[in-house]
Every structure is written in structure tokens, then in C-alpha cells.
Write a structure and sequence with these properties.
This protein has 194 residues and is α+β, with helices and mostly antiparallel strands. The chain is built from four helices and seven strands, in the order E-H-E-E-H-E-H-E-E-H-E.
Length: 194
């Protein structure tokens, strides 16, 4: 089943592609673990971008709340692979938050902590990880290389009926509160055990 995602402007895509690439590198290039035919998703909620088509990893419809392990042969192989390590299939979601407002004023540590406490923690109460990062992208309009402090928030979760709306709420709150053009997101299949 194909899923349509919001369009990506070249500026937004360039801005987050470096960070998204780093996430894949840091995660051990999980694509070798994913059943054939699945692919990672990179997107933003920018409203100014051309349409792209992709297939979510091992899940065909997050809105149904169906479990990754219920999705068919590829998922069964992935579930078996995860079982070999005494783990189970989950979604690994990484959110990419720029830490500078458009006019150059940084988002303070206190503002970030307050966003974590009032939005991220209640939304992902079972746990999350936050990493500091330095992102960079080339502005395709000005051809200038721009760098920005960033935060990567990683969440491991089962696909639930409300996951899409929870993710979009987090992204929209951050964009509105800190005048951001986008909040990057990557979603991939992962084997997880705690």
C-alpha cells in the first residue's frame, strides 16, 4: 500500500538530510535488518513541498493500531530475526529539532527543558532519549552552508492508533512555539529489548 506524505521543499529537505543521514549511520544502518520491500521514511510537515510516495517500514496503516508482527511474511521474518536476539519489532522514531529561531536567537536550555516536560514526556511517557547534535545544510536559494545546534529525540514504540496524531501534535507545537519551518522525522523498523 502506498502512502502519500506531505511535500518537501528543497530547502527543508536539504536542511534535515544531513541530520537524517547521521541518524542512519549512528543506528548501524538498520536497512540490512528490514525485510525487502520496506524503506525508511524521511519527511517534514512543510506545506510547501512536492509530493513523495513511500512505504512505511513493515506497517501498512498506523491508524489501525495493528501490531508490526501482524503485517505479513516480511514482518514474520523480521519478528523471527528479532526473536533470535530476545527482542521484538518496534518502530524507531527520531525527531530532529533545530535549536535556533529564524532571526538567530537560540532556544534556551530552560525553554527546551520546559518543552520536554510539557510536551515530549507526556506524549511519550514510556520513555525517550535526547541527544545533542550539530546540524548543517546548504540553503539552495543562497548557496550558503548553515550550521545549527540541534536535538535528536529517539522513541521506540509500537504503532498505535493515535501515534500519527501524537507525532504531528509534538511537531506542530514546536514549530509554532519556536517559529520553526519544520521538525524533521525519521521512522524505521527496529528490534528492541530492555
Amino acid at each position: 500500500m502506498s502512502v502519500r506524505f506531505p511535500p518537501l521543499s528543497s530547502r527543508t529537505f536539504s536542511r534535515w538530510s544531513t541530520l537524517a543521514g547521521m541518524v542512519v549511520l549512528l543506528s548501524g544502518c538498520e536497512s540490512g535488518l528490514v525485510a525487502s520491500g520496506s524503506e525508511s521514511i524521511v519527511g517534514t510537515s512543510s506545506t510547501r513541498a512536492p509530493a513523495v510516495t513511500g512505504t512505511p517500514p513493515l506497517t501498512t496503516n498506523l491508524e489501525t493500531g495493528s501490531n508490526i508482527s501482524e503485517q505479513g511474511t516480511g514482518a514474520a521474518q523480521f519478528r523471527a530475526f528479532c526473536s533470535a536476539f530476545q527482542t521484538h519489532p518496534m518502530l524507531k522514531i527520531t525527531l530532529l529539532f533545530g535549536q535556533t529561531r529564524p532571526h538567530g536567537k537560540p532556544i534556551s536550555a530552560a525553554e527546551w527543558r520546559e518543552f520536554v516536560n510539557t510536551t515530549l514526556t507526556p506524549t511519550f511517557s514510556t520513555g525517550l532519549s535526547i541527544l545533542s547534535a550539530q546540524g548543517q545544510w546548504k540553503d539552495t536559494t543562497t548557496n550558503r552552508l548553515t550550521q545549527e545546534p540541534s536535538r535528536l529525540v529517539m522513541v521506540l514504540t509500537e504503532p498505535t492508533q493515535d501515534l500519527t496524531s501524537r507525532l504531528e501534535t509534538v511537531r506542530n507545537r514546536y514549530k509554532t512555539r519556536f517559529q520553526q519551518d519544520s521538525v524533521g522525522i525519521t521512522i524505521s523498523a527496529a528490534c528492541a529489548g530492555f
